[in-house]
Amino acid sequence: MKIIKKKIAIDSKGQVEFTDITDKVEDIVAHSGIREGQVLIYSPHTTASIVINHNESMLLQDFMRVLYRLVPVSDRYSHDLFELNRSKTSDGRSNGHSHCKNMLLGVSQTVPLEKGKMMITERQSIFVAEMDGPRKRDIIVQIMGL
Amino acid sequence: MKIIKKKIAIDSKGQVEFTDITDKVEDIVAHSGIREGQVLIYSPHTTASIVINHNESMLLQDFMRVLYRLVPVSDRYSHDLFELNRSKTSDGRSNGHSHCKNMLLGVSQTVPLEKGKMMITERQSIFVAEMDGPRKRDIIVQIMGL
Amino acid sequence: MKIIKKKIAIDSKGQVEFTDITDKVEDIVAHSGIREGQVLIYSPHTTASIVINHNESMLLQDFMRVLYRLVPVSDRYSHDLFELNRSKTSDGRSNGHSHCKNMLLGVSQTVPLEKGKMMITERQSIFVAEMDGPRKRDIIVQIMGL
Q1: pLDDT tens track of chain A, all 146 residues?
Q2: Given an 8 Å threshold on Cβ–Cβ distance, is C124 in contact with A46?
Q3: Would the CB atoms of B145 and C142 count as touching at under 8 Å?
Q4: Half-sphere exposure of residue B30: CA atoms within 13 angstroms, side-chain side
Q5: How far is CA C137 from CA B33, B40, C40, C71, C141, in A?
Q6: In chain B, residues 30-59 whose CB comes closer than 8 Å to chain A
Q7: What CA–CA distance (Å, rounded) separates C50 from B48?
Q8: Overall pTM > 0.90
Q9: ipTM of the complex as predicted
Q10: Torsion of CA A142, B1, B2, B8, to 10 degrees
């Protein structure tokens, strides 16, 4: 069995933003030499998720609007008071809503491989879903297999 | 290490529908000869998810009602305008809501194995959660282990 | 390839409760002798989830409040009638809401390993998210790798 691990650096510009990393993950898979197995795309962050869905710009707006509606930025979050009180040692962001969105979407996705390629279909893209940008993020791509 | 991969064909009848595939996944696990490891159940689709929960018909109604309430079909989705405008090359479905539900539920589940069996307990069933039926779907079951 | 499997016993006190099991999972990883690979944290239950996020007590209140708002305990759930009618053979809990929350959060998380340690960052903790406590739970930790 072979295990390969790489990082993908993300530099988000907006507060909530979907970045398509499909090509980058495909490259890592292609260079891994692994033909059968799985690729794990993992976000080692508490306010950035991994999502697999259709890369259509108006749909991405829908995703953001649904997330805003389910976990409104305008609500009060207890965590924001915590961040306020420790702002000397933290970045003091009011990002309670970002953590809650992250809890709903999760921090990883796993995709099976076949003959050296991810088994994603034509309409599936892999996104980093930034919930608290702009920020720099490192996403981990790990491939296990034969 | 051994890696086995099979497909399960789904033919959904309703718009939102939960199909129990536990027996089919169990069969694939039993025939794989793999005793320890994991099974990945993966939906290569942007409007169909994999869910593990209790197969009780009234609870499935609750699941659908919660999904309808969180992401109402009756809302406007920008993606629906996109589909309308390109209806010559697409199937023109107003399925923005289906993509959003899929984003919330995700496209895969992973279950550990023990002595050749999935470690699901009595009340756990594995479902394909159709969000944009009726449609034909191919679900991928991949087993990795020893 | 090596595969190690252990259980973590949880004894929740509240109805909805987040229990941090990061240290316990780290111990299992450290004793496994596996240096590269993955750890799967799996809940074999229909009303308890696994969540990775920041362990900050006011944020945990936000998580619970968001879950209560998205899937209110005070709504009617068809499943509760089912449980009522079969109360001789079940525990008769009105836990439709717990199953729905579990559907949204999922039953597992996968974390990659590097040099014998989980690649979680400073702010990430691993939680069992109890949705229908108080209850005893057994969480499965499975490590696959080299």
Answers
A1: 999 999 999 999 999 999 999 999 999 999 999 999 999 999 999 999 999 999 999 999 999 999 999 999 999 999 998 888 876 555 667 899 999 999 999 999 999 999 999 999 999 999 999 999 999 999 999 999 99
A2: yes
A3: no
A4: 6
A5: 29, 23, 16, 22, 13
A6: 40, 42, 44-46
A7: 22
A8: yes
A9: 0.95
A10: -30
